[in-house]
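Notes from hallway chat w/ T.B., transcribed later so I don't forget. T.B. wanted the structure written out for a chain they're using in a teaching module, and asked if we could keep both sequence and structure tokens in one place. Agreed to drop them here.
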Amino acid sequence: MLLPTIEPVTPITASKKDRRVLRAVFRWTAAVVVFAVVGAGTAYGITDMKRSDVPGLGTESDGRWDYPVLTKPPLPKGSPGPLAEANPAGSHFADLRALVLPAPKGATGDKALDGSDGWLATKVFLAEFSSGDDRTELAQKLTDDGLRHIAARGWTTPDGTHTRIYLLQFDTATVADGLVSGSLGGYSAPTYPVRGADSYESDDDFPDAAKVTDISLLPYAETKPYGAEQVREAFLTAGDTVAMIVQSRKGETSGVTFQQTVTLQSQLLG
């Protein structure tokens, strides 16, 4: 039997440019392998998105903020994640304070949301809402639902956008879901307006590709005529935790940075 003839391969000498490209490819490949093995960062779960839909991977001119590298805090040994089947209560066993999205580079922190030892007083969270009656009613609901604690962070970026993130933790996912669906979030507007915005509409421009699987999302945008600022707001539900994200800026807020912030916070909670 005759064996197929294998033609000799002429070696190709890589140019300096080629070697630079190869080194870059190897670095990216190594980074992907690290994320796949460790599973602790927020990169997993977004491989099915287009590059232009993934926060932090857009072009330099798309207006996205430069966030630091995000990693989730370690879970206690043997503890499941909040969305695992083995965790029907949806409990976040990691420290909630470590799950709040950090400020992007160049932002100025909002010290009013630092809280005491990282936990925010309920009255500071309630001050976000414009109506005194709403604050009283919501305070009672939070008490009835057994609010455990609130972790928060706020910042202002050089473009004047003021961001506030509040994470409210309860005993079970059922309680968290019920608070959002029954009290906080409406179909086209939140039940309780925040300061600076009275009229809203559902943010239908929020791309599906930027939504995180198994995280409930209700995004809203203030409708015209705006006051001094436009407000965007979103509620996330992830297991036993409800996140409220508020962004405001003089003139109009950026849909791009709002979507980026919401998506990254969703990934940290998921």
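Follow-up for T.B.: Confidence is low (pLDDT under 50) at residues 1-52. Might be a good example for the class.
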